[in-house]
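Q: I have three molecules that I believe assemble together. Could you output structure tokens for the complex as a whole instead of separate predictions?
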Amino acid sequence: MKASAKDMFGTAKLSLIGLMAFLGIWYLVDLSQLVSTKFLPMPHEVLLKLIELFHIPFAGNLLQDHMMASLQRYFWGFGLAVLIGVPLGLLMGWFRWLDDVVTPLFDSVRFIAPVAWVPFAALWFGTGAGGPTLIIFAGAFPPCLINAYRGAKGIEVRYLEAANMLGVGSFKTITEVLLPAAIPSIIAGLRIGAGLGWLSLVGAELIAASSGMGYLIVKGQAAVATEIVMAGMLSIGFVGVLIDVAIRKMESFLLRHRQN
Amino acid sequence: MPRSDTQIVGLSRRTWLGVLTIVVVLLVWWLLTSVTGWISAVRFPPPKDVGEAFKQIALQGYGNGKLHQHIFHSFKLVMMGFGVAVAVGVPLGLLMGYSRKAEALINPAFLLLRPIPPLAWIPLAIVWLGLGDAAKVLVIFVAAFVPSVINSYTGVRNIDKPIMEAAQMLGIRGFKFVTDVLVPGAFPMIFTGLRLSLQASWTTLVAAELVGALYGLGSILNQGAQDIYPAMILIAMVFVAICGALSTALLGYAETKAMPWRSERVTA
Amino acid sequence: MSTIEFKQVTRVFKRDGEDFLTIDGFDLTVSDQEFVAIVGPSGCGKTTCMRMVAGLEFPSTGLVSVSNKPVISPGPDRAVVFQQFALFPWKSVFDNIDFGLRAKGLPQEKRYEIITHYIGLMNLQGYESAYPHELSGGMQQRVAIARAYALDPDVLLMDEPFGALDAQTRVVMQEELVKLARRNPRTVLFITHAVEEAVYLADRVVVMTSRPGKIKEILDVKSIREAEGWDSHSKIEDVMDLASFVHLRTRIWKSLREEHGSDDH
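A: Yes, here they are, computed for all three components at once.
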């Protein structure tokens, strides 16, 4: 349905009303003393605290430094998940024996909630960087693997027949036919994996970290500094959105030659 | 080599390879830990220790209760949070899907809160409700709420326009419209939302219990870490996996029963 | 010298534990550079015959061979033009044609020369960097034909190549293919259900029975075509107007009709 300009203006108006209603209710609850501002700081207090955290450190670091620490661990864990998961999934789709060997192993560990790996990671890696990386990997790996696998398995038979007919060897078929055909599915997996990885990171940092966004909000909770907790939550959400947007941009780029 | 689906002694080659792989892994595990001691028991527990830990928690109890008590407690919390989330989220999603006005009104608040990972709500929940069960239920609610809304919304949006028009032409309105057109039409996606919500509920609960709890698999993980009892940690991880897999399987089964016309089986 | 031999070929298809005989006792020899079309009712197994020469399927009993070498796998010596084009959507027109040539290990200049030649021949100039979704159905099939010819195959296999095109495009493509085939003669096995198409393009037309498919009759078109001078007319509609054409077409139509009558739908 194409929305006319009038419809869109109407929608925008309603959204604005919705937003103001949300903020309004928030303020009302505070101002009416229903809940102490210690537990529910007013929206502007959260915003001010957020800005303040950029110059005044809390829990050992400035906000941006906590964020950098989180992002660093994130890219390691997510990067590994993609670098291992995608090729492995593709190859499992191609080589039946690989599928038969890996699937039982994978199925036994994939239902373990990523955060459940934290104590084990602490035992295995101590306080090193391996710990959080493992958790992020545990979160991001399954979707990357599964979607690459499904993408490979779901390839239309005629493409494989055409490649076969043309006399294209295995390596070229995997890299120039299987992989491009699987890209839409792979990207979907990346998006899900990116989200789950970010989520797992925060979880890991809540429990076993000395820096990072998860650490920041858990310290905020310990100090009953609710504005900090909320400011942290919003920042975490915001960066999560940025990551998703980045992946969608990459998707458009990779699929630019294809009709949707 | 014979193809995967050829039968050897009644089981397919695929199954044999799978079993073989697991057996090899178990063997390697036993060799590396018990027999050679290459991996110290502090790093990774040998099979014997794991067996002991299992007996202990199942029969005597560990960390405030026996295994089934822990699981039951966790299950109760998940059901509470999940139940409320679905009861609120699915209708909300259906409403937002059907009415563009409702969508426009509610979207801003939703968009603001949606990107915040459920686990990030744990500290806030603790500030508000303390370290007890209530905070956990709140976090589970948040985790289960978002997928319920989104998938119900998408479910409605995916209903073919001709079907909606046919219903309007037949004069079906109001409550009947919701129960006989909207909900069945959105059913597949609603179920996907339920599945994702349940998985998110379990994952979030384990995390919340890890942060601080008296009962639950997460609390066992925590206790095991504090006591430096790797075998118990492993047991807890195994049962987390079992619970997660079971809930997925159960919902998948419920899905095929509720929608017998669908041929796809849920496996993830 | 490239020939195709079907010797006592049968094909049994298993489904739900039951056996269905789809092709029964198929015997045919296609001579070097001969253009043979197979027509028949739906489900008679004509596409399966082609796929067996391509090496995409295999006979249950009997032998399918090319130049007396049994067919064991697909390959560029038996190029296929698929009904649904099967171009790779993520490759440009140029790369689609190039792919098979690269697999042959040809050097870059040679590949470039071949591709340019066939792009010219198939009227695709200017579209080298275009992607399949930007092209019409007719253009995509031109690319598929160019791709097949560029392989310099011993045998050309076409599976209802114009089936997915609209009627007008189809006619244009038939005209082009005829010109190409006369200029660049090769051993061709052409599958179609459109009788006019078969009569227009082929040297011989094989009529198959309904399932289980056997050869009902084989008609020699070439001698009539040469005797009546069809190739002197450049437009397809002029050829299709000729009495000899109409007579042959109707003859085959009637033969097929009998098969449709015995079809249990």
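A: One point stands out. The first strand of chain B starts at residue 7 and ends at 8.
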